[in-house]
Amino acid sequence: MFVALRLMGLVFVAACGLFGQSRHCTATGDIETVPFKSAVFTGPRSLRVLLPDGYRLPENRDHHYPVLYMNDGQNLFDVCTSLYQSGEWQVDEIVRELIASRKIQPILVVGIDNGGRRLRPQEYLPYFDDTLRPVEPEPRGALYPRFLLDEVVPFVENHYRVLPGAQGRVLGGSSYGAGIALFTVMQRPASFEGLLLESPSIYADNYHLLRDAESVLAWPLRVYIGTGTIQEPLEDVRKLEAVLRKAGLRDDRLRVVVQEGAAHSEKWWAQRFPIALQFLFSQK
Questions:
Q1: Maximum alpha-carbon separation in the chain
Q2: I need a surface site. Which of 122, 173, 195, 240 has the fewest CB within 10 A?
Q3: Domain residues for 57?
Q4: Distance (Å, rounded) from C-alpha 67 to C-alpha 50?
Q5: Is 116 helix (H, G, I), strand (E, B) or coil?
Q6: Does the global pTM surpass 0.90?
Q7: What is the mean pLDDT of each run of 10 residues along the chain (284 residues)?
Q8: What whole-number distance in Å separates Cα of residue 53 and Cα of residue 96?
Q9: Cα(33)–Cα(14) distance, rounded to whole angstroms?
């Protein structure tokens, strides 16, 4: 049975005593938190679904929406669920403001939880990363495309009014979450219309992902890549950009944003997120 915890209202504010911190929860809008069990990856997790304002109105009952799938779902909407002290992406506030101002079309956002801090590298690494401490001895990221496209996407398409197939379907993530997003679109060509990569980690196993990318012929219609300049993979982003340019992606299909002085955290990804959304979901 499909059961969702629904958070509605302008701001959902609560003390985070369970987390031993004085932070206040920051989720906004109509967000459904859906417990999700996977046959591919062990461990409890949720899908966090942000519905656009008006989704439940009777006049919109036949409308189907583009959808943005984002890795690290815990870090997208609420500082209380974020796995790290650096905060959250403010995805809910940013998406709602851009839709209200007609800068992007109405979309759903599906935040896909990872298995937790301990399991995250195992789920997001398709190749061995000898720079990680502690090292993950059994990376299982090669299974991620199956988890996403054979489990998560069918569930969403069965329970929410989203456009079917690759039309209007975008995949995104940051750091390891961006690396596994890149891996997924390379392994399952034509499954996504757009790709959003923030501070992508593509160096594992002597840049195996980058070497894979050199032989890819079919890329999503639009690809956004963002990075900062402080302890960020700027050189790696430039290498990936060169591969995509060589594959034929011009400015109408590829947007690369380098933010001076920006570092590797949700704070900076949130600052660039409106640019990514407007490139990938411009109002039609």
A1: 54
A2: 122
A3: 5-280
A4: 10
A5: coil
A6: yes
A7: 58 41 82 98 95 98 98 96 86 98 98 96 97 95 98 98 96 98 98 98 98 97 98 98 98 98 97 98 78
A8: 8
A9: 16
